[in-house]
């Protein structure tokens, strides 16, 4: 139907599916598997509903959605089909098939595993888990500290995905998967990169705007400091104390300044073996609480001439001195149909002012 997309099954372009699709939704969201939903209009042949399509869209088939952007193909999502819904109308006209699925993280969440590891860092564990899944390439940022046998070795009792998500939460890291237009997957395990350049500029309230509205929510009632002390069971000495925000701020004034003199603190007392591990948990918690500004907006491919992706930075212009500037993309809903290609965007910011 001329949607400027390509549908692939097992990394091979499928022209029949590409021609039959009438609506596509791809949802990207931080700390969640990307998901997809495709709606196909089908015909009835010999009292059977889309027999060939039914075979190519069976649960378990690996489906990819590639969008044509700037004379190139961008893979929005790749993963297994997990659900199929069919609707048969009497006479055939108006019949359809709808398929849903998730990215390759779904495959990493199917089998519970048991492993006992020592003398390894969290980043070493994650790197091994990613590399062991469907030839996925690891892109892993190093973590601090290690699991030593004389303290506590690391024991995996979950699926690979659950383990990676848990280690990410403990370190203030995030896990997501990207794919090239050839189907090559990369598993990213990283903190938010706040020092990069903006990938796109979103403009409101100015000439040549590419968004019509920007909704902003500010919640300064968030902790910017942790307080937690424990006793080292080996030395019987006190460890821990106050930990404050140290991350890069995307704006002039961060959470401590926005909250004023009433600093919000939180008590943190995880089970750890050292002061370094305790501080790492505090840093991880503050990496998430600092995002006290959230925003939403909507644009389309025709106006932006590009696609917005999660875990990237965009720049907002025209929102005034307080709210213009860099934002981190935390979610994008891509909707592609005969009308066009729209993107509902979710943003976060850890400061205001420019």
Named at the architecture level, the CATH assignment of the largest domain is Roll
Q: What is the arithmetic mean of pLDDT?
A: 89
The total beta strand count reads 25
| Computed CA radius of gyration, to the nearest angstrom | 23 Å
Low-pLDDT residue spans: none
Q: Can you summarize the main beta sheet?
A: 13 strands, mixed
Class computed from helices, strands and strand pairing: alpha+beta
Determine and state the CATH class of the largest domain: Mainly Beta
Strand content: 35-45%
Number of discrete helical segments:
8
- Number of structurally distinct domains: 4
Distance between the termini: 44 Å
CATH homologous superfamily placement of the largest domain = Baseplate protein-like domain - beta roll fold
How would the global form be characterised? flat
| Helical proportion, percent range | 10-25%
Please name the CATH topology of the largest domain.
Phage tail proteins - horseshoe like beta roll fold
Overview of this protein structure:
This protein has 4 domains: 5-102, Phage tail proteins - horseshoe like beta roll fold; 109-190, Phage tail protein beta-alpha-beta fold (3-Layer(bab) Sandwich); 200-218 and 292-332 and 342-352; 225-246 and 260-287, no CATH class. It has 8 helices and 25 strands. It has helices at 15-20, 51-56, 122-131, 160-171, 255-259, 275-289, 301-304, 320-323; strands at residues 5-9, 12-13, 21-29, 35-41, 44-45, 48-49, 62-69, 72-87, 96-102, 115-117, 137-140, 154-156, 174-179, 185-190, 200-203, 214-218, 225-231, 238-244, 253-254, 265-267, 293-300, 313-317, 325-337, 341-349, 351-352. Helix 3 runs antiparallel to helix 4 (160-171). The mean pLDDT is 89.
